[in-house]
Amino acid sequence: MPRICCCCDCLDSLFRELDERPKATLYFHDGVRFIDYVIAYQDNDEHEHDKDDGQRQHYEENLEKAGLMLEREPKEQSQDQNTYFVKVHVPWPILLKYAERMKMKMPLKEERREEFMKDSSEICGCVKTLYRKLVAPCVLNTEEMTEMEEPDYYTTEFVRDKMDFFDIQDEKSFFANSQRSRIAHRIMSETRYGPKRVNIGINNLISSGVYECAFPLHEGKHKSTESKLAINANMRRLLYWEWARWGRWYKFQPLDLIRLYLGDKVAIYFAWLGYYTEMLFYPTIVGFIVFIYSIIAVWFYAPTQEICDETYPTYAGNLTMCPLCDEDCSYWKLKTSCLAARITYVFDNEATIFFAIFMSLWATMFLEFWKRRQFELSYEWDLVDYDEQRDLVRPEFEAQVTKERLNPVTGDMEPYLAAKDKYTRTCLSLVTVFFWILVVIAAVFAVIVYRLAISAIFAVSVDLSSLGAIGTFATPAMLTTITASMLSLVIIMCLNKVYEKVAIWLTNMELPRTQTEFEDRFTFKMFCFQFVNFYSYLFYIAFFKGTISGTPGHYTYLFGSWRWEQCDAGGCMYELSIQLIIIMFGKQLWNNFIELVMPWLQHKYRQWKSQKVSTEMKDNEYTRWEQDYDLNQFTEMGLFYEYLEMVIQFGFVTLFVAAFPLAPVLALVNNIIEIRLDANKFICELRRPLAHKCSDIGAWYYLLEFIGNLAVVTNAFTIAITSEAIPKLVYYYVYSLDIYPSSTYNGYVNNSMSYFNTSDFEARSMPNNPDPFGEGNITTCRIHIYYFNTCRYPGYLSPPTASPKYEYTTQYWHNIAGKLAFVIVVEHVVFFLKRLLDYLIPDRPRKLRDKIKREHFLVQHMLFKAETQQLLKQLSQDNEGTRELSPAPRSSTKQFYSVENEKETTPF
């Protein structure tokens, strides 16, 4: 991290002194009871002091009645002299009770004898050996990790009546720290703090300011002065050393340890992000090949040479083009769009058509193979068809819903939201979402108006000749595109912050029953908004800008005064590419800054503030709970924004990849940084998250599938409408033979430009400077035909000498037919291939399905065997008692019944 101010040396010394304080503890003062959760609060508001104290006292008393043990730390013992801490410990009987209630899967006594099946994607033989050698530098050193990995046991849902069947070696090791924290949080979420129904749960207390935060503890510091970790180091330090450090950017992720420390929900996110990053290598390689081919071919491409060289035999570069705006804009030479034409060809050629089809199939392959990988992880982590949080009712739902009804499955009374109330809330939410989507469209419209206003200003006020080489690049159209893209990026980021709060309010208003429903509904709202927010302007450039501007003599106007902006002579493809680059790169740069710099600054500031207050309290220990309190809070929806960022990026990579083949390259570089950035954030900068159970990526998969299917349509229409690929092919195979003996692209530029008589301009469209080149008249020359007092514009319309003039030519309708045929054929072929791949690649490997069935059978067999052994042991004990009472030897069965008979007839 670079130094940010001149006093950073003082800050570093201060933090070193802070870390050298006595070692923090993870236990109560007795050194025996483990701290499962910590609650913190401050006394800042004197007016609310009595009310908050009453709620805290009532809540903590109810926690103790629920069986939890609390230990309070006064503010005089804290570093900032203002924060109270309440440490929570869950005793053994409460752990057993809630493990059964939450249906936690716990290990049985017998270990798995079968090895986990090998990855089906591995290649056998010499290729497999070569693969292992290639990835050897990326493999982590597992010597230290094996000591911390959990044994591979058969598991089943915990039942207190069958405790003897489970592998309970001692009370401290049976439940992992993450499981203890989940149980503590569940009890804290169900405990009341007041008489009203809404007075329930730690989350409501935090949101109302009674408590400031609640969190589980990290297992020690993440850094060590030792050059190499000891085997018995804490898991947080091990994860930092082997995963979160930037020096491990090229290493595979230790997913098993991430799961053990941060929980299944966080681990499945990093597994998905790592797999997505790994799959991006393939389109990155293909995209580089396409880009290099385009860079080389642009120097030999005939239409580009025609535009850039006015001495070329067709003299296309010397064509006089019609003004791009009314009055203030004058006529211009086609050669001034040379750079735009070259940029357009780099992103618009035959290779990009192939690459767009390749990316559509790649998206399908990625999703299909991820489903297989996800299922393998679910098996390996014992999460197949299991999610303990899926059916748990949210405390907020229980508190606000007054009606109850009988659950036909469980037979218990549960809160019930009436259908009328549910539909009313949902309709109100949908209307609000639609309103905010209209707000986004209005913002896009404002950017369009900005372009209409600023393009004429750039065309008149910017003297490009004085800029030298820069003026070759900074054309008015290019300046307009760049500034409008930056303005659009700023508007997008601002609207994101506003809508985020609106989406949370709407989702809470809908009263989802479970946390899974809450996250799915919130995800839907945010995705709809982000989709429109990030992609709407791209859709405008790709599909609407070139079609609504009109042609000379028939221009269309906004509000009757502003003429709609036209595409460059080379088309709108290069503008789409620039817009995509700026938004994608700017979004990633901003997100990385927010995720990397801001948490680091906040963490250091909190540490400095605590240390500054406690400089006179040398005896105060900088405890583990205070160190974690100084970290940034991990919100319950923290992973949501990580997923959303990647899903939006997936849209940039697939939806308009025909306009920017290097999008996978930017995504790959960003994701390599993102993995270590997120890892460093979770280990170093954030409080430890609650280890939620989760078996898949949830609704995000369906959103990715939606984007993958939409990408087929958008890329087909981008190539057909925005690209010049289809008109070029029509010219190549049909019209070039009229001029050249063999099919060629020579003469395409001249062929694609129509003629317009300058005397046909409306009064408001007539340029103020009718003769900018000092030629006496505006002329345009073609090899065989001469038109005087005319200018050229892109399109296929009849010349002013024809009758009727300015009507669509036959070549225009041929182009329309070719575009329509291309869209239909490409969509049907690609969708067919996608469905074929979906059919050929099963979601669950057959061997793994059989293995799961085998394990289910073995678990049931072990439980039956254990019950039988327990019964035989009981019979044996009864037999021993029978022998003491009866001197004559008998068979065990008869002896059992004799004992029962004696019990019935004995007078005692």
From TrEMBL:
Residues 876-908 are annotated as: Disordered. The lineage of its organism: Eukaryota, Metazoa, Chordata, Tunicata, Ascidiacea. This is Anoctamin. Keywords: Cell membrane, Glycoprotein, Membrane, Transmembrane, Transmembrane helix. Residues 258-855 form the Anoctamin transmembrane domain. It is found in: Cell membrane; Membrane. The keyword Membrane applies. It comes from Ciona intestinalis. The chain crosses the membrane at residues 280-302, 351-370, 427-453, 473-495, 522-543, 646-669. It comes from the Eukaryota. One of its GO terms (molecular function) is protein dimerization activity.
